[in-house]
Prior knowledge:
The chain has strands spanning 18-19, 22-25, 28-31, 36-40, 46-50, 52-54, 57-59. By secondary structure, it is mainly beta. It starts with 17 loop residues before the first strand and ends in a 27-residue tail after the last strand.
Amino acid sequence: MSESPSEDDLVLPPVPLATGGVVQVDGTGRRVSQMELVVSTEDGAELRIPLEHHHGAWWPPTERTAPPAGVSADRVPPADHPHPEG
C-alpha cells in the first residue's frame, strides 16, 4: 500500500478536470488525443501529469487523487455542506 501524501503534496480532486473531445485551433475544430496538466515550480522545473480519458471526460491519474492522511474518501463532504455528524 502506498503512503498517504503529506499536507504539502499536490493532490488533484477525484473529479473530471475537463470534458469534450474537440478543441479549436486557429478556427478549426481538432480532436483531442491527449491532455496533460503542466505544473511549473518556482525554480523553473516542469512536471507533466497526463490525464486519463474515461467516460467522455479527462480525469487525473488515481495516484494523484489520494485523500488527505487519516481521512477516508467517503467521509469528505463538499466544502459548502458540512457533514451531518459534525
